[in-house]
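Entry 14. Ran structure prediction on the chain below.
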Amino acid sequence: MIGRKIVTVGLSLGLLLGSGGVMYAAADYEGHWSQKPISRWLEKGWLKGYADGSVRPDQAITRAEFITLINGFAGLTAESKVKADFSDLPKTDWAYEEISKALDAGIIKGYGGTIRPGDPVMRQEAAIMVSRLLYYETGSTEVLSRFSDKDQIAGWSQADVAAMINAGGMRGYPDGRFAPKQAMTRAEAIALLDYYNVTSGGLQSVNIGVSEGLGSFEPGAIKYYNNVTVSGYDVLLQNLKIFGDLVLEEGIGNGEVDLDSVEVLGKVIIQGSGDPSVKLKNTTLNQVIVQKKSGTARLVTEGATSVKAVSVQSSVILEEGEGTGAVLTDIDLPSGLAAGLVVTLNGNFGDVNIEAKGPILHLQKGSIRTVKTAASASGLKIELDEGTTITQAILNTSTKVTGTGRVLDVIVKEDE
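Output, structure tokens:
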């Protein structure tokens, strides 16, 4: 069965929206339209007020603060590899890393070199950020005709505002306005995330077992989750965006896990023992970590698949299917691994960086752009089958190369 739990985003929100006392004697939210969501978040400990006991629901929230809320909601906790470069955001700013995360996730884009972190976030800007976060499909903007100020909604935000209205996440005001350029208040920010986090279930973490499926099986529809754990075999994940990690546990054994049109912003971790097969079709992954106790995992890519990095900590077969090319761009064998692990490659690969002692790198078919070894990679063996090519090998230790394949350029140097 699928176990579900709501993402507890309240810690980030509580730290962001004020510090100090947890008593709310001022109760400045009583009778406010947002009293129910604010009360719910206070009761859960997800929200803390100011030292005077107030919550200040009608105070504007800045772009940096709202971005931080979204990151917490989406579970974007890992440090971003992409670093923000905006003229109005020094690296010492408290929001620098949060904005970098949102930039990497495609939630924000900036304003031609600036990000305006201290400006209040406008309602139409908030609509765009959440729409991007949830990968809403944008299309007809006909729904905007219900608002008396529809002409004030910027062209660049209309599709996303319409998507948010259609999804029920945002509404207009009683007087018929949407107020696209109005600053979003703290209450509105809480209510907006409360809708997704509580009312509609929000981003959940799930565990799925043997012969189960997860995601949407309707073309074009996407389902969103925080962390996903697979504890069984013969599992299909389809049309998913996972903001946290995907963990393939011991229970997959020698079975198969298929990912079709899946995006994982965190890590994919392959554990357990046996010889499982993981098929990736039209899938985008940031990092795959193979850390099995025994056996050999097999990863097969198909279609428009992209994997930025693979950390090999146990034996693995990496294979490109037809129609893909150089989708596994960065393969690392870190130091400290048991000697003798075997990495078998079948396809066209980018960079292979080897620090492990005594591994076997077997290129069955295709090519590797660069193989780079550290001094710790003593005892490395490279096996090249007929027709295979390594464009460049940068060697910092003695390496044995066998087979009929070719190494086009060899650089022997001391380890840096």
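The first strand starts at residue 3 and ends at 6. Will compare against last week's run tomorrow.
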